[in-house]
Write a structure and sequence with these properties.
The chain is an alpha/beta fold and 319 residues long. It folds into 2 domains: 160 residues, Thiamin diphosphate (ThDP)-binding fold, Pyr/PP domains (Rossmann fold); 131 residues, Rossmann fold. The chain is built from 12 helices and 11 strands. Strands 2-1-3-4-6-5 form a 6-stranded parallel β-sheet, with helices on both faces. The protein has a 5-stranded mixed β-sheet with strand order 7-9-8-10-11, with helices on both faces. α1 runs parallel beside α2. The longest helix is centred in the N-terminal third of the chain and has 13 residues. This is Transketolase.
């Protein structure tokens, strides 16, 4: 059987949107001057339900909120740092606040998580979005690790009223789940079993976690790897049960460490469930850097590449 080839997360989702716009007249797409081949089909086939607001993310949110109040299921699309930070006040006021009294269905699609726009530098890279969007009540923060999960998230976003932020990588990542997406309701899936520690990772860092686990397995160190793709609504009891089965917890994220991201999420879960475990948070060193290089090189420089992560895990487990 031929292995499923990697695709862009963006394309997997846009294709699902395009397919369903023919039968669901409440689907509406709003873009901030950000293109894609499938987007051309949406614009061409459904021009009355497509708006390009230009490079104006504040207006992107305002228009999306207005359309949602009229009953549309809105997908708003822009580069990740711009759809979260350039218009954060609008996300807070016109989405998070307003939706508490006027329910709406708005999905923000941010492309370019972490270092995936590697050559564009820190202005176009995005290390803060997990923290910022998890802070807003009412937002679901969804961070898939492959295009299969990304495409499957359409059904949840279109079918359930509420606010969602999709944190998409800009690069084609290896397929983790075959043709069948994981259980979206649970919010996570265990990709690898292990006995020495649990590794909770999200997005691109799931792939790094698997590389580290493979390497350490050669020396008899056994890591369980968990893909946490729902960073706000995961099944806490189910995840806590997995973490309780192992004596240590490691988190991995392509975001600033110690700033309210996956490391804080994981430690908070341990505290809530009364689980005492030593923890190690592997994330980006909290500083902006301007070095050039490929993604692997930059990851090693900021403390999240496979080599430095492996060394830190070895030291943490004292082996």
């Amino acid at each position: 059987m031929t292995a499923l080839q990697p695709r862009a997360m963006r394309d997997a989702l846009l294709e699902r949107i395009w397919e369903n716009m023919a039968t669901d007249e409440r689907l509406f797409f709003v873009a901030a001057d950000f293109g894609a081949p499938t987007l051309d089909r949406i614009r061409g086939d459904f021009p009355k339900r497509f708006i390009n607001v230009g490079i104006a993310e504040q207006n992107l949110i305002n228009v999306s909120a207005g359309l949602a109040l009229e009953g549309f299921k809105v997908f708003a699309y822009a580069i990740a740092p711009f759809i979260t930070m350039r218009c954060y006040e609008q996300c807070r006021t016109n989405l998070a606040l307003l939706s508490t009294v006027r329910p709406m269905n708005v999905t923000l699609v941010g492309v370019g998580a972490g270092y995936s726009y590697v050559v564009s530098g820190p202005t176009h890279q995005c290390y803060e979005d997990i923290t910022l969007m998890r802070t807003l009540p009412g937002f679901s923060v969804l961070s898939p690790a492959d295009h299969v999960t990304a495409g499957a998230l359409f059904d949840r976003c279109a079918g359930q009223r509420g606010l969602k932020y999709l944190r998409f990588d800009a690069q084609n990542l290896p397929v983790l789940h075959g043709e069948t997406a994981p259980d979206l309701n649970k919010g996570f899936t265990q990709l690898r079993d292990g006995s020495d520690a649990s590794v909770v990772a999200t997005g691109y860092m799931v792939h790094t976690a698997l590389k580290v686990a493979d390497k350490l397995a050669q020396d008899g160190i056994s890591l369980a790897v968990i893909d946490l793709f729902d960073l706000s609504g995961f099944d806490q009891d189910a995840l806590a049960a997995l973490l309780a089965a192992r004596p240590a917890l490691i988190s991995m994220e392509e975001g600033f460490s110690g700033r309210g991201g996956v490391d804080s999420l994981a430690r908070d879960l341990l505290s809530r469930k009364g689980l005492e475990r030593p923890t190690l948070g592997i994330g980006v060193e909290p500083a902006y850097r301007f070095e050039l290089g490929d993604r692997a090189t930059l990851h090693e420089q900021v403390g999240i590449g496979p080599l430095v992560a492996e060394a830190r895990v070895r030291a943490f487990l004292k082996t």
